[in-house]
Amino acid sequence: MMRFQRFPTAPARLVLAWRAAALVAAALIIGVLLALSGRNVFELAELVLKSTIGSRFGLEDLALFMTPLILTGSAVTVTSRIGLWNIGAEGQFYLGAIGAAGVGLYMPGSPLLVLPAMAIVAMLCGVAWIAVPTLARAWAGVNEIITTLLLNFVAGLLTYWLATGPWRDRVTGALASTGRIHVAIPEMWGVVHWGFPVALLIACGLAAIMTWTSWGYEVRISGANPGAARYAGMPMRARIIAVMLLSGALAALAGMFEVAGTVHRLQGGMADNFGYLGIVVAVLARRSCLAVIPAALLMALILDAGIVLQTQQLAATVVLAITGLVLLLIAIGDELAHYRPVAPAIRPATSSSRPEKKVTA
């Protein structure tokens, strides 16, 4: 009888096929549930399509969502290549936003000088924020998941304190927000700023580094087989430190782009879970730096569709449940892609080892 066997790797075509099937199944389930609640499913579907990929406004929103998702997704992906998980991209995002806002608020000069300074300071803040979990992991073997996760809450509270205290906007009196920074990333298409193509180039550059450089090769080997990497004399500790610090810098750069390109000020809650969603993007990308781009696009579509549905009086909890259902079915599809039918082995017939007795008359 035919049986199914799980293989350690899944071909890309099977993964794409199962994900497409998961999206179709999610659409059918969501459609049935909305129809049972009295909604016009076809009108909602038409509205979602027009508001996301069917209009210039929707495409601009997708690009704005994708910019931080690509960077935070890349931040988590590079650490996963060496067998680690940076769960603190949310906190590093906040620290990058704090550093960028500090420069944008208090450093005079032209945008040609201030914007690079904002990016450099933001990345240094992200590197400093992840430095303690990195050194603890590299030198003492402390689990980086716990340390990076807990620092997220500290970073969020620090942002609220700055936005409501020392850097509070005393002109307009806005709550939990600083004043508007005096420089901004130039716009390239509508409200889409130049941070979007920079994020795309960063993702492509990371993919090239991981694929074609000796440093990327050592990172991949260190993550796939640490024992073999140590036997080959690869500097495991140095590679862990370098990858973790690079991850913190990428997540912090996402915070800088959000401050200088989208929000134009520091405010509480501005991360909008982009750091946590970067983990989802990295999982969808299956440890591929280049696949972060389509994974971020999918996540941006889900987020944008959720906003559209909320404008149609769907509760935020319902939208969250829909998002969870889509991601759950995609995860199930990714797992099913590892299973393939295998024909049972046919055992050749063997003759008896006992000698035949001769019958004599």
From TrEMBL:
Tell me what topology the record assigns in the membrane.
Multi-pass membrane protein
Q: Which domain of life is it from?
A: Bacteria
Pfam families on file = BPD_transp_2
Keyword annotations for this protein, in alphabetical order, are: Cell membrane, Membrane, Transmembrane, Transmembrane helix
Enumerate the subcellular locations listed in this protein's record, separating them with semicolons: Cell membrane
Q: TM segments?
A: 20-42, 62-84, 91-107, 113-132, 144-163, 194-217, 238-257, 277-302, 314-332
Question: What protein does this entry describe?
Answer: ABC transporter permease
